[in-house]
Structures are given as C-alpha cells and as structure tokens.
Amino acid sequence: MVGTNNLDTKLTIAVLGLGEAGSHFANDLAELGIAVRGFDPALRYALHPAVTLAISNAEAARHADIILSVNLSAAAETVALEVLPVLTENQLYAEMNTASPDTKRAVAAILAPSGAKVIDIAIMAPVPPKGILTPFLVSGPGAASFAEKLAPFGLGITTLTDEVGEAATRKLLRSIVYKGVAAVIGEAVAAGQAFGLEPYIREQIRSVIGGNDALIDRFLEGSKTHALRRSHEMEAVVSMLSHRDIAPVMSAATLESLENLIVHKTA
What is the value of pTM for the model shown? Predict the structure, then answer.
C-alpha cells in the first residue's frame, strides 16, 4: 500500500488498461491523492473509489497531464491511434507495454502529429507487491518531464536518454538472462524429479547461482505464475534480436518453455 501524499497537486493521470498492472498503478496513484481516470474494455479488477472510469481510451486521455498505456504490446499501436485525436503538445504519453523497441518507436511516430511528448517506460520488476513504486527505466523526449512531475511522490524512476526504445532495449536484454535462467532451472528441476535426483540437481543449480532452495523455488513459481506475461516479453525479445540479425536460439527456446507452462496450466 502506497502512503497517502498530502501534497497539493492538480496532476491528472489517465491509465489506459486496468489489468493486473494497470489497476495497481491506478489505485496507488489515487491513494497518493492524484486525480486518476481509467479505461479498460473488460474491467476485472477492483478499483480505488477515487478512480474515475471513462467510456473510452480517448475520453480517459483527454486533458490528462500524463497518460499511462498499460496494455498488451499487440494493442499498443491501436491504443495510440485511438487517443491521437485528443492529445495536445502539453501532455505526456507513457508507453508502458512490454514491447520491442520498434513497437515503442512506432507508437511515437503515430503520436508525433499531436506534439505530445512520448516516454518509453520499462517496468523492471513484477508489479505486485510494490505497485506504482516498482522500478521504472524511462527514455524518450518526455522522460525528464515525466520524472520531474512525479518526483514528489517517491517513485523509483531512472531516467536514461531522450531516445524512444532505449528503455525497452535494456529491459529486453535483461530478460534474455533472467527468463533464460528461469527456464533452464525449470527444466533441470523437472529432469531431476524424473530421475529421482532432485536434491542432486538443486545442489548443482545452487553452485551456479550462489543461492539457496528458496531462490530456486522463486524462479520456478515465478515462471508458472507469470508465464503468459513473460511469454509476451520473450516474444518481444525474439523480435528485437531478429531485427538485428541475431539468431534468437536461446530466447526462442525460453519462449517455447513459457508457452508449454501456459498449456499445462490451462489443461
């Protein structure tokens, strides 16, 4: 729970996409005393009483100081097109979807005629339990203004450059390591169990990661719990690498591993 902020502020933030991450952000921002408007075509999560629901993405974004787009990467460009007619040069548009750098740049190109300043935001950890205090990497023309406007609220914002796509690139490069390690650990533990040698394989894993069984279990449970979201993340990784003519051999295998977890979870 984010502590209530007593600052006298007229800041208005629109949250487009009120899924798990978006609803956490909207609720926490409202708790901070910020005026929050949101939209989601299929609302599933409870919202803070102070969050105002709009009838469309465009209506939520109209006159907001900051717009947070928190959707699936596949919807990023569609949402940008929907809000383009209502945006002005005085607004900041934060593209928070886990998407490839090319998708982030495509969103910026769509919004360019409005004059709104675009921020590429990479969410660098699972949103629960920290919510809006989750660490963010930000880049793009509006990155400095975004950090400045939200500085009084104690968010974990690290500003990079004014290049859209840089935050996304850094997040996805990191994902190659973290999601790849999690996939290897999952396969190794499953193999150890199949051969009746789970204690042995856990010992081998510990010798590599310098951790303990609790850390191994966090890798295993994280992959299972967040398989769908992480599969979208790895799709973006594969796309990014392919566009740089890098064969995404290990990343593609990690993606397949996550897809298998999704199938088993829904079976």
Answer: 0.90
